[in-house]
Amino acid sequence: MPTHRQLDPEVRTVCFPDDGQAVRGVNFKSVDHRYAIGDTEFFDLINWVPLRENLKQVPGNVAPLATLASAALRTWIAVLGPVTPVSYMFAWCVNGHLYQVNLQSGVITDVNGATVINPTDLATWNLTNIIINSTAGINKIFTWDGATLTTVFSGQPCQSLCVFSGRLWMSNQFTITFTAGGTFNSLGGDSGSFTVTDDDCPAPITALYPFGGNLYIWGYSWVQSLGGLFDSGSPAVLQFQKNTITKEAGTVTKVSIREYGYSLYYASLYGVWVLLGAQVSLVSYAAGGYFASIPNAGLSGGGTTLSSAYGQIYGIPIMMWQLNFTTDNTSRLVCMTLEDPQNPVWFTLNLGSVAFQLVTNGINQITGQQQVWGADGVSVFQLFLGTGTVTSTFKTKLWSMGDRLRQKTIGRIGHEFVTHGAITVTMTGRDANLNSYSPPLQSTNPGSSGYYLIDADMPITSNMVGVDTVVTGAGATLLSTSVEYIEQPADWGK
Predict the structure, then answer these.
(1) Which of 62, 194, 224, 279 has the fewest CB atoms in 10 Å of its CB?
(2) Average predicted confidence (pLDDT) for the chain
(3) How is the beta sheet containing 465-473 ordered, strand by strand?
(4) CATH number of 4-22+392-487
(5) Using an 8 Å Cβ cutoff, are 354 and 376 in contact?
């Protein structure tokens, strides 16, 4: 509990956070959870990055690198070029075309032209070929070398694919087919197939993902690992070991899977999980309220893709997943910091008019820079590079000041900011019943860089009080929030 500062016999002031106290991120499990979270946690946090001691506005947007001919439905980032590698975004669009976007120059190339495809996954082979599946009755595997699209297999249904241990692996419902060793285009030699028939792993297979020397196989509610590959016999037959890791926590989409260190992070309809070795744990408990509507709405037409990305903001490693937050119908990137993976801090991003529904990440092959890319309809942006203004929102806990039952008459609520230019601040008070109060008087908005205390009269009498604050600015830092109040005599139940 922060320290109470006694200004006179009646008036008290309390600061959140107090000196030396850490700022936490979002703790949002349900709409009622605002009463119970920690004093320095937030009920909602939009476009603020928790930096332990304070909050800082996320960097703004930049101009689009490229504009697609049609809105993107799915995106991937892959690298081509064995001599001079280049990162490309591949965007499957509403008009039935797969576009290749050079992420250095912005040049767009139509991959399939008049060829009918419907890709749900792609993989890279030795930096020379992009291997592309095609579903919905087409049932072909294609390869793209940067200039020509070629059919590899016909009559090969496939929902997910990957390159693992020098082979192409393709899944269809509960069957996995793999090519001969050292090839992506041969079903002879020691190629083969197998079916996942375990009782605890019902069809379909939703993702194939190589990581840490193993191939991970996902279903809706389960994960298996496959490894220990070797050939035996004559003719050679590929042998391997396969084990079920979990039968409770799978994924609905491969684009939700990201790796960090020795761990795999991925999203289900119910939250974000981490897979470390053979252990699976839910890590999004503090952000569970954002996922609450997904199980009913699903991914079809609900604005949620669960597309994911890894990147850095202000030098802090961040993992993020896209979803549609139905409470206010906004596209959010639900983010976790990875400074301390055992204790992640959560926040969300909603970058104004740029409603990213697809995010992914890659590496600048010239500078080595980690990059996060988003597709907002037809526009392709790199995130977190802008210097323009951003609108950021935080909603605090409903504070009791250490006594839930006594009424408090609020005098003022104030925020300490360090700014890097003009900002505008709009404060709305909340009482225990979430009634809103607009301040009759508020400090003048800062017009330049510096330290500022922005305070407002807040005529609230309640046993609990909170504040919703909207800040428009560039790179502003919130240091603390202070509440000045007078505690009333106990009058229970009235």
Answers:
(1) 279
(2) 92
(3) 308-313, 316-325, 330-337, 346-349, 42-46, 390-396, 465-473, 424-431, 436-437
(4) 2.60.120
(5) yes
Classified as helix, coil or strand, 472 is strand
Say which residue, 113 or 1, is predicted with more confidence. 113
Of 311, 383, 378, the C-alpha closest to 350 is 383
Sign for the pseudo-dihedral over CA of 352, 354, 358, 361:
negative
Determine the Cα–Cα distance for residues 111 and 103; give it in Å rounded to an integer.
Answer: 16
Nearby residues of 45 by Cβ (< 8 Å), 6 or more positions away: 25, 26, 55, 346, 347, 348, 393, 394, 395
Question: Which CATH architecture does the domain made up of 66-389 adopt?
Answer: 7 Propeller (2.130)
Q: Which helix (H) or strand (E) holds 294?
A: helix 294-297
Query: What was the pLDDT predicted at 277?
Result: 86
pLDDT by residue (tens digit) across 434-470?
Answer: 999 999 888 889 999 999 999 999 999 999 999 999 9
Section 25-51 average pLDDT: 94
Q: For the segment 253-280, what is each residue's pLDDT rounded down to a tens digit? A: 999 999 999 999 999 999 999 999 889 9
Helix (H) or strand (E) holding 289: helix 288-291
Distance CA 339, CA 317 (A): 6
